[in-house]
Design brief:
Blueprint lengths: L14 E5 L4 H12 L3 E6 L2 H14 L4 E6 L5 H14 L5 E4 L17 H16 L1 H6 L4 E5 L23 H25 L5 E5 L4 E2 L1 H9 L5 H12 L1 E2 H4 L1 H8 L8 E4 L7 E4 L6 H16 L5 H7 L1
Parallel strand pairs: 1-2, 1-4, 2-3, 4-5, 5-6, 6-9, 7-8
Antiparallel strand pairs: 9-10
């Protein structure tokens, strides 16, 4: 039998945090986790959409336990503030799904001056995860799931000497680089957990080709060039609905048999049931080393395990 939301175990008493919870894969993940009994912190930039998403979930699951926190991953200050608020309210976090992201945007900068896709998709999640490290390590066996894409297979590692791709920007190239950073972050974080004997686990997942507003937004913004309308058409006509696209990240987050360092995605590449996937990248070690160097240097924040453990 294919894995489905019916296989999610009882999550009563668990606390989950989902970024980008106001739509698409994030909304579907929030629905499923709340339906299983978890208290879900909906971390989202657009508070109006987040409120509507909460109402949608409560209409289907009146007993759902939900909380909305404003999170703008394109702002270091806002991201730190959001993480601090969540950590103050929740001494234990059992599930963190780093789901939010942008795809194939025109060349733009975050509030702190970084290339938008790398800044939001990776640097923002680096800061957010760092800010939640204490409650993650305080949980019995927390799961951190970072969402990548099949585009990570075409992505190039971040260049420490040109983090913003100045003079060499392409919308899809930046997207592939950001999604590769998500991939390397998930595997690198698992290695950090293992080195310290932590009970927490880090996994990576991708949704395949899913029909969400991500493709529509790319077309509207005009960053994806001539191929953007094609991929939007493909997602609309051949892609999986968002609830199925969310299954790999939900399985990574909740399946008792899933293990840290594993990769989940659709069986047939862009479609199919959520299954464990092979890790095909050969640049894992170098990619993680570069990513940690750049992330620490540019954000000024390390993943301070020692401080987090001392505070638990």
């Amino acid at each position: 039998m294919a894995w489905s939301t019916a296989d999610i175990p009882n999550l009563n008493g668990k606390v989950a945090v989902v970024t980008g919870a106001n739509g698409g894969l994030g909304l579907e993940s929030t629905k499923a986790l709340a339906a299983a009994g978890a208290h879900v912190v909906m971390a989202a930039r657009n508070q109006e959409k987040a409120g509507k998403a909460r109402d949608e979930i409560l209409a289907a699951h009146p007993d759902a336990s939900l909380e909305i926190i404003e999170l703008d991953l394109g702002s270091f200050e806002n991201t730190k503030t959001a993480a601090a608020k969540i950590a103050a309210n929740h001494p234990r976090i059992d599930i963190l799904i780093n789901n939010a992201g942008l795809m194939a945007m025109p060349e733009r900068r975050t509030a702190d001056g970084y290339e938008m896709q790398f800044g939001v998709n990776h640097l923002g999640h680096w800061l957010f995860t760092a800010g939640l490290l204490k409650p993650i390590l305080a949980a019995d066996a927390a799961r951190v799931v970072t969402v990548t894409s099949t585009a990570h297979l075409t992505g190039r590692m971040v260049d420490p000497d040109n983090v913003n791709m100045e003079g060499n920007y392409s919308a899809w190239g930046a997207y592939g680089r950001a999604k590769l950073a998500n991939f390397h972050f998930a595997i690198g974080l698992q290695r950090e957990f293992e080195k310290r004997g932590a009970k927490a686990q880090s996994l990576v997942a991708h949704p395949g080709l899913s029909h969400t507003n991500l493709q529509v937004h790319t077309v509207e913004q005009g960053g994806g060039g001539r191929s953007a309308p094609f991929w939007a058409w493909m997602a609309r006509n051949t892609g999986m609905p968002a609830d199925r696209g969310a299954l790999p990240q939900l399985r990574a987050a909740t399946d008792p048999n899933a293990k840290g360092g594993e990769f989940y995605g659709p069986r047939w590449g862009n479609n199919g049931a959520p299954v464990r996937k092979p890790i095909l990248r050969r640049d894992i070690n170098e990619g993680i080393e570069r990513l940690w160097l750049v992330s620490e240097r540019e954000t000024g924040v390390t993943l301070d395990f020692d401080a987090a453990v001392e505070q638990t």
